[in-house]
Design brief:
single chain, five-stranded mixed sheet, four-stranded mixed sheet, 1 helix
Length: 120
């Protein structure tokens, strides 16, 4: 139960850091400046990538990759995790879906910026 509460808390913090608290729009919105930054751990590569949210609330069309709070915080507090990164089959160029603690799914663009670095 503690782990579920911790994951929900990290998810809320990640969403706030990503600037994705405005939901329900059918068109993409550019986040406020400066662009929200986040670190993403890519499991298949065992690397941490910096990232910047470039569009939020994009329509649920096309392919998306799952992004989630990293319960192990491989790349530091508030980091996120995904299975594939640049160069991997399955990486879709930074088009993400993230499930909120309330069950809503949000879609946004947040490209991974290379080169990735091993976790500290």
């Amino acid at each position: 139960m503690k782990k579920i509460a911790l994951i929900a808390l990290v998810a809320a913090a990640a969403v706030a850091a990503l600037g994705l608290l405005t939901l329900g729009s059918a068109s993409a919105k550019t986040p406020p400046k400066p662009l929200p930054r986040v670190v993403v751990y890519v499991e298949s590569q065992n690397l941490c990538f910096d990232s910047v949210v470039t569009a939020q609330d994009i329509p649920d069309r096309g392919r998306f990759q799952t992004l989630a709070p990293d319960p192990d915080e491989n790349c530091g507090a508030g980091s996120l995790i995904t299975e594939f990164g640049p160069g991997d089959q399955g990486y879709v160029g930074g088009r993400w879906e993230l499930t909120m603690p309330n069950g809503d799914v949000i879609h946004f663009v947040c490209p991974l910026l290379g080169p990735g670095e091993p976790p500290a």
